[in-house]
């Protein structure tokens, strides 16, 4: 340590004596710890210290030794009690960090919301779409490899790339809302079809078709068992194809169509053929109301039927017949049946029904045998607006949530009846000036609310964080102790006056020696 001090000060000079006053002046503590300078040891170029006297001096004056070491290592520690303004690093740094983070996040939000909210909302306001819903029925769903448009895309920036599904619908106005009163002996039956997503499928290329038995609907070598859901009647079939054996998977790897199979030997069913649902044991005894709703059948014994809008009676049990209709939604209570959007109202003689029947026979009676009665519910062709319109989930035909919304949308709205299940029927929206496009989701109130929230919140956060950062730039400064403070906490003249007093005191402590003072706050 002594060697370090010797080499630092370089106190090898011609003068060999020092006065006691010089040493005495070095042993006095300066008035301010923060204004300590090397000149308080005396002029280094005029005095030199002997080994014994320097060691004795440092032992008695450990205070100056610590100051000297801190000065050499670039440290200028200032006690908090000696500061005019205390350090405010934590609060200032926290404020700046939070504002910077808010500024970045709000900027990103504004960019993202431009595509997700602002542009779609503006397009919705200008679309001219009637906010009153009408009804749509899916007519066909087509898979396309190269799409000019798609019914639903998972990300709007890539909605037109790759394969997609295009859904076409029949567009019509709403039907009649009916209320069947004083109903008793009610029953309902759900005729389950085939769930394409959950049904077991045999892939012939994997040698899974070698033991097929029953009726199968095959597409490119992938066969779906429909035996339990449908009963198919046919007269003609093609020559048998053997899917078992060594070459079975090769023979059946590309089969398409409806096949009747027995232990791996399959025959393609040729048209004409008729496949009916295996939905049996529907109780029709003592029933005078039969309402079809998709795959469900509601039956009851009611007194009369009332038009919910006009409050007029459109049917009474005194007519001694059976009323039939196809409705979108049915609410069955203890004494009444409420049916919404009913179409194709008709009447049927009692003797056409037995105690039990099946779904196929009921559908046949409704379409071909019953007598149309527009007073009960108008026929669908009188309500038609467009026979084939393009269906889109919204005006953009895409969503930005990345939550597989399109998968659920296509599953619910893409049912076109090709699998012998009921077609999808749902409310939709259209513009009278553009009937070839309909959307499934449209709500101007929700759109306006989302637009306001998405505009105000990030914009306010962006402006406030920007102003706070500008305020910090103008009012925050870094002192000599590397601490941040607000300029408004103390007057600048006070700081300069305090520093000048400290400098004068330091000069007095040096005993008249010269040198540069290191000014600290």
Describe the structure.
The protein is an alpha+beta fold. It has 4 domains: 2-84 and 490-509, no CATH class; 130-169 and 387-441, no CATH class; 176-192 and 286-377, no CATH class; 201-277, no CATH class. Helices cover 29% and strands 28% of the residues. It has 11 helices and 26 strands. The chain has helices at 2-9, 20-27, 51-60, 62-72, 89-126, 248-251, 359-369, 380-383, 405-413, 444-475, 492-509, and strands spanning 134-144, 164-172, 176-181, 184-190, 201-203, 214-219, 222-225, 230-234, 241-242, 257-262, 265-268, 273-277, 282-283, 289-293, 296-301, 304-307, 313-316, 322-332, 336-348, 356-357, 371-372, 384-392, 425-431, 434-439, 476-478, 484-486. The strands form 6 sheets. Strands 3, 4, 14, 15, 16, 17, 18, 19 and 21 form a 9-stranded mixed sheet that branches. It has a 6-stranded antiparallel sheet with strand order 5-7-6-10-11-9, with no helix packed on it. Strands 1-2-22-24-23 form a 5-stranded mixed barrel. A hairpin with a 2-residue loop joins strand 10 and strand 11. Helix 5 (89-126) runs antiparallel to helix 10 (444-475). The longest helix has 38 residues, at 89-126. The chain is extended and about 125 Å long. The model is unreliable at 1-48, 492-499 and 501-521 (pLDDT under 50).
